[in-house]
Amino acid sequence: MPQNLNEKINDVLEDRQLSISAITRELKDKGFVEHRLVLTGYLRALRDLKKLQEIEVPPSKVYKRLDCQEKSTDIYSIIGDHIKHLDMEIRLPLVVCIISKLFKRPVFREELLHLGINSKNVTNCLESSTCVVTVSRDENLKLYRSEITRIPIPANDPAYEIKIEDMKLVSMANMVLLEMIKDLVDTTGLTPKTKQTKLEI
């Protein structure tokens, strides 16, 4: 498969959305001949990478470009992208700290699953003598579960909170939140080109 096929697909989809058959025809006109099944798999991979949006238009699917202005607004995806490079012993308390600050409530296990943190990760942390995360005993947990409508929270889903206000953890959380804002807002023309704009954690 040609290495610049992605560029050609972007060119074909500029300012419009097309079906797989239409994309195949357009690419063929540009000298790129690929079997329809191969191209279908490639388009779905670009969809999974959030490079393209797949739209159901029965009986077929159409694809359109996802430009930088259309970045994911799912809070769990945004946070996940910023902490995925960190070790789990740092990632878990950092996530609990960030979400607690954002939503002013404990963090449910279901939310941690959306961030790639499973029950075993949580258990390992809680068993550690240095763990700053604890199971929440907040009396409003039932109310919080019912008020969360973006994702389904199981009725008995446990929640977690930070038991010790650690300034280093708070500082790291603030840096991640700043990076999230910079990713969501166009700061072109506001930051010096000669300065490093990426925060180190």
Features:
201 residues; mainly alpha; three-stranded antiparallel β-sheet; elongated
Concise description?
The protein is mostly helical.
How would you describe this structure to a colleague?
It contains nine helices and six strands. The two termini are 38 Å apart. The mean pLDDT is 85. It has 201 residues and is mainly alpha-helical. Helix 4 crosses helix 9 (167-184) and helix 5 (88-103) packs across helix 9. A hairpin with a 2-residue loop joins strand 2 and strand 3 (60-65). The longest helix is centred in the last third of the chain and has 18 residues, at 167-184. The chain is elongated and about 65 Å long.
Uncertain stretches of 5 or more adjacent residues: none
Mean residue pLDDT? 85
> Level of helix content?
40-55%
Strand order in the sheet with the most strands: 1-3-2
Distance between the termini: 38 Å
Along the chain, the helix and strand elements come as HEHHEEHHEHHEHEH
Number of strands: 6
Strand content bin: 5-15%
Shape: elongated
Radius of gyration: 22 Å
Helix and strand content put the structural class at mainly alpha
Q: The biggest beta sheet, please?
A: 3 strands, antiparallel
**SS element count, helices:** 9
